[in-house]
Amino acid sequence: MKVLFFNYANYLEIGIPGGIAILSALLKESGHQVRLFDTTFLKPAYYRRSQNAGPAVFKETPYTLEDRVEDDPVVDLKEEFSNILKEFQPDLLAVSAMTTNFDKTLDLLKQVQPDCLVVMGGVHATLEPEEVLRSEVVDMVCIGEGEGALVDLCNALDAGQETRNIPNLWLKRNGNLIQNTLRHFQNLDHIPVPDWSIFDQRHLFRPFEGKVYKGSFITNSRGCPERCTYCVNKVIRKTHRGCGSYFRRQSPQKTINNIKTLKEEYGATWFKFADDTFLLHTHAELETLKDGLNDLSINFGCSVQPTTINKEKVALAKKMGCVAMTVGIESGNQEIRRKILNRRISNQKLENGIRTIIDAGIRVSTFNMIGLPGETRENVFETIKFNKKLGIKAANVYIIYPFPGTEIAEIHKTNYRDADGKMISMGEAARFNLSHMSPAELEGLCKTFNLYLTLPETYWGQIKAAEGQDERSQQIFQELEVLANTFISS
Ligand code: B12
Ligand code: SF4
């Protein structure tokens, strides 16, 4: 069987999608031929080299990703996709999509009208299978994990067998929707080493502290035991009732072997654990991981759920090569966190946790959301001040986007499609209008959040003037950004 994977990513939004990499390895193990159509490095006509690389949290490196694409020609996505379809003649097009890239994925599929079977998996297919199947270019969707489903599908197609009863797959047959049952959750020790070979190797570009390393995302657990109101995990857990324990960990030995192989085969020494929360592994598991990873001398970053932070685990992570941790603060207001987001940790514990990481010499970046239901401008400043108090230099800030099925979307009856059926993009999230701030004020605060964080309060009057979208505000914004860079690097 010839299988073509399709990943729609924005230009230069690098990072190997873990799902495709694992599925590719599995299909190859089963004797199928695999190729990939990935838009990450297909240069669009609108691309211009950036003048300002943003706040210089990362030290300058000998070369940048933009240097590495300098000589690439501008190409047309439809033409590139049609060419690979014509040349490879796949039997199956295996598409992966999140909610955020679903429409763009579908647009391109409609443009090329592949004449083979099309199966779509990933987060969006899991959350909205019926919507995905309504599209005439998609024949099947995979709900949840794809390992068993995709291998079974390809093997059955190869052998000319019936494909209508494969667990985790929903499909259309003679105008009917066939909804197969869900299979038991995947055992993470039974999956192969991710196949990074089908990806453009520039995906492995990893600048850190003035050096360029090679590496990408890796996971050693799946699921999350928390139930935050804005997170898709709660939805996925609910749809998978009866499929086993939602939160699963891989054995340390398997993770160590995977990393060893990725180091040997691709020269990877910098990894980002994409697990929802890395420190949920037991002390004993972390000890074993430490012993194995020490021999491999790798660096890695990971996300940690604040309630899981303790001194011993952080120290173990540090010893095994952890140099950066990302922690979700989300809101500096404890009541908003608890009542609106269902994140049950006090400000004091959150602060202690983050200080534990900083004290261990691990760099911390935070995730923050604004525009939360009922939130005021003052609340946003509580979040800014909370980050500031901790000396955070890298804060990721987003206007909340209620993803389909999440509790927050249901309570507030939001729709991620507007009246014309067009998907509201992440960049337009202020349109959900859940807070006490106007969309313009929210966008201004989102734009300037890191200026407020970095520059002393004496500048806050000027920063406020930079919140607007008019020319003058933009000019002030640019001047302050330059100034903020000097504060960060000093
Ligand atoms: C690494 C990561 C990224 C990477 C790589 C993306 C990628 N395609 O994997 C990068 C940095 C690019 C990224 C970006 C963003 N991400 Co992200 N990301 C993740 C993260 C942390 C891990 C993904 C992963 O590797 N999982 C492990 C693999 C094994 O699981 P998987 O991808 O789901 O694949 C399995 C199944 O889904 C299925 N499957 C997947 N594809 C296919 C295809 C076929 C044919 C089949 C049959 C099955 C199948 O089988 C796989 C194996 O079981 C997830 C959280 C999570 N835990 O999944 C968020 C997550 C996917 N991201 C999310 C978001 C919101 C974003 C951003 C919008 C963030 C932002 N504000 O900018 C952007 C959007 C980018 C865009 N252009 O649209 C949300 C998506 C919500 C949604 N409804 O879509 C998630 C779920 C985080 C969350 N909890 O909210 N992300
Ligand atoms: S802790 Fe993070 S991954 Fe877990 S449910 Fe909450 S937001 Fe989702």
Highlighted features:
TIM Barrel; 39% helix; binds cobalamin; 7-stranded mixed sheet; Rossmann fold; binds iron/sulfur cluster; 3 domains; 490 residues; alpha/beta; 18 helices; globular
Q: How would you sum up this structure, described in words?
A:
The protein has 490 residues and is α/β, with parallel strands linked by helices. It folds into three domains: 178 residues, Rossmann fold; 240 residues, Alpha-Beta Barrel (TIM Barrel); 33 residues, no CATH class. Helices cover 39% and strands 17% of the residues. It contains 18 helices and 17 strands. The strands form four sheets. Strands 2-1-3-4-5-6-7 form a seven-stranded mixed sheet, with helices on both faces. Strands 10-13-14-15-16-17 form a six-stranded parallel sheet. Helix 1 packs parallel to helix 7, helix 9 runs parallel beside helix 10 and helix 10 packs parallel to helix 11. The protein starts with a strand and ends with a helix.
> Segments where pLDDT lies below 50 for 5+ residues?
none
Q: What's the tally of helices?
A: 18
Shape: globular
The name of the CATH architecture of the largest domain is Alpha-Beta Barrel
Mean pLDDT: 96
CA(first)-CA(last) distance: 56 Å
- Using the CA coordinates, give the radius of gyration: 23 Å
Content-based structural category: alpha/beta
The CATH topology of the largest domain corresponds to TIM Barrel
Query: What's the number of structural domains?
Result: 3
